[in-house]
Design brief:
The complex is a heterodimer of chains A (420) and B (304). Chain A has 420 residues and is α+β, with helices and mostly antiparallel strands. Chain A is built from nine helices and 22 strands. Chain A folds into three domains: 212 residues, P-loop containing nucleotide triphosphate hydrolases (Rossmann fold), CATH 3.40.50; 85 residues, Elongation Factor Tu (Ef-tu), domain 3 (Beta Barrel), CATH 2.40.30; 105 residues, Elongation Factor Tu (Ef-tu), domain 3 (Beta Barrel), CATH 2.40.30.10. In chain A, the strands form four sheets. A seven-stranded antiparallel sheet of chain A has the order 7-15-11-12-14-9-8, with no helix packed on it. In chain A, strands 2-3-1-4-5-6 form a six-stranded mixed sheet, sandwiched between helices. Chain A has a six-stranded antiparallel β-barrel with strand order 16-20-18-17-21-22. Chain B has two domains: 195 residues, HUPs (Rossmann fold), CATH 3.40.50; 82 residues, no CATH class. In chain B, 53% of the residues are buried. The chains are: A alpha+beta (420), B alpha/beta (304). At the A-B interface, α2, α4, β2, β3 and α5 of A face α1 and α2 of B. Chain A: It holds the Pfam family GTP-eEF1A_C.
Chain lengths: 420, 304
Amino acid sequence: MDILRFATAGSVDDGKSTLIGRLLFDSKAIFEDQLEAVERTSRDRGNEYTDLSLLTDGLRAEREQGITIDVAYRYFATPKRKFIIADTPGHIQYTRNMVTGASTADLAIVLIDARKGVLEQSRRHAFLTTLLRVPHLVLAVNKMDLVDYSQERFEEIREEFSSFASKLNAPDLTFIPISALHGDNVVSRSENMPWYNGSSLLHHLEHVHIASDRNLVDVRFPVQYVIRPQRATDPAFHDYRGYAGQVAGGVLKPGDEVMHLPSGLTTRIASIDTFDGPVDEAFAPMSVTLRLEDDIDISRGDMICRPNNQPHVAQELEAMVCWMADVAKLGPRTKLTIKHTTRTARAVVRDLHYRLDVNTLHRDESAESLGLNEIGRVSLRVTQPLFVDDYARNRLTGGFILVDDATNNTVGAGMIVEAK
Amino acid sequence: MLQCDYTTSQLDVLEAEAIHIMREVAAEFERPCLLFSGGKDSIVMLRIAEKAFWPAPIPFPLMHVDTGHNFSEVIEFRDRRSEELGARLIVASVQDSIDAGRVAEETGRRASRNRLQTTTLLDAIEDNEYDAVFGGARRDEEKARAKERVFSFRDEFGQWDPKSQRPELWNLYNAKIRKGEHIRVFPLSNWTELDIWDYIRREGIEIPSIYYAHTRKVFERDGMLLADSEFIIRDEDEQLFDMVVRYRTVGDVTCTGAVQSAAATVEEIIDEIAATRITERGATRADDRASEASMEDRKREGYF
């Protein structure tokens, strides 16, 4: 059994909570005491129906205001897969939360109300999904019951969205007509839409192929921690020196020739160690410890790759940045701390090329700064070289965070473009 | 572990993620510690720590906030496991906090030391100058926890502010703090109760005997089965009786309920959990029942 991480975007109006509630309920991930608590609260508030959003909106402020303000993680499993849902709010003032939820997602579900069609909000969600390079996108056309399960309406929406998506460089795109309220095409195929030949939503989630979404080509091993037992009880480990980390790309095997950055020195992998014994190969997302044949000075923040396939060694970065600070703005000369893989450095913004309107995709080149939830293209200069790939090629070596030195808050998420 | 199509099982993915988190903490903080209670989640967390740094020993001490109201089987296990690993175990005692006048014992038949633990924990973090504290909490446990970050920032008063949490993207964790502040780190955030048990089975991890079915003298209070104990005052109508039970969670004797169960092996426990329709905290924890937001309130104050 493997894991599928998926993000959902939308508001209560789109039926998102109803959809998640149904997936959880039908997979028996909602427990009786949780359901009772939700039913009790719904009753106390005078609601006529059981408000399943109460299951995910766990913070007092959210319940008081009746909105989702943060990413909530939910878990369920079927015999095929374990699922992690990053449930994110859909409104534009929570763009940073959606970006956060999408950053680790294998798949995103964007909900569309069949009556309303493709709205500004749906386009924004789809754009953010592609910006974060979520490999699979599902357009769930919901409330089909309210348009008489009309194939014509579904096709209309599909065409409208497809023409928009072609501009986005959208990944694998799937359209599913559903009624979350009645369960049509959620867990099993609906009898109300015999014209639909595709899978139910859950079937799609269970079977969508994600293993090849990881980069298995470019060997990238950011060194996280050097293991040198100081007081090893076993004399065999007195001279042990291992480089621990999580594989970010490619497949590593003992005997492979590898290159260390920044030194550029080459050596071979002597062994790939784990607590449970050495392994024959390592690939993302495995956490392993490498031993190398030669003694090279290697520390945290360094990168191990292949001599004929290296990341870009860059101090000048071009990136799309989503700004997340409540007050401070990002503009030319803003100084920040940057964390990229296991390396932390200082960065200064050299230029803001444009601010992107996430609803219309219009580029405003006259913009002088980015405020909360705004996205733009920036140039950064970094105090020490980073070992980067285009975010489109590898999310783990192409993504970075920006930290404000005054507050220590995480204030930006960056995706590297045109690495050179 | 390895298959030709490079898929990775759910337990391997969760383990790799938790190991990554632990190494990140060891690399970025000066003085981390790991909360080890002898409960199943902290036992799994300890195994992950063992794996993350092997063949080196775990590079931080273990800490237990001991209310003095714990199950004796669990305390025995805690001490034995720490010793086997050669780990340093720091016991922060709620009794000491009471004796020092830092907190006042609750009175009455529902008296519990659950809430008092927070002061003892925060004092111990401050006294030892810990800047990162590993906890075994999981997001599936409780709805306030569903929103908590893996690296969860605490201010100098140890407080959690759920409304201004740091965004957490990819596998990049922000470890920046000022002196006096600390980060609670939850490497098992994405594990479910069933994942924990699957992992215990796969790894053949030993757990305290009270997780398995045994005969115990219990009485019923508010629909929960509480153990006979010197720390609980029973009403006259709360009669003791023998029952075959086990514990799904392990907290204080005073507020942890047993469940009726004949599950005597890990396999039987997994079958039981897979079929259950009640969450582990809903079934067994009086401390979570106080109000809809009781966990959020305690967490804001600095609770685990």
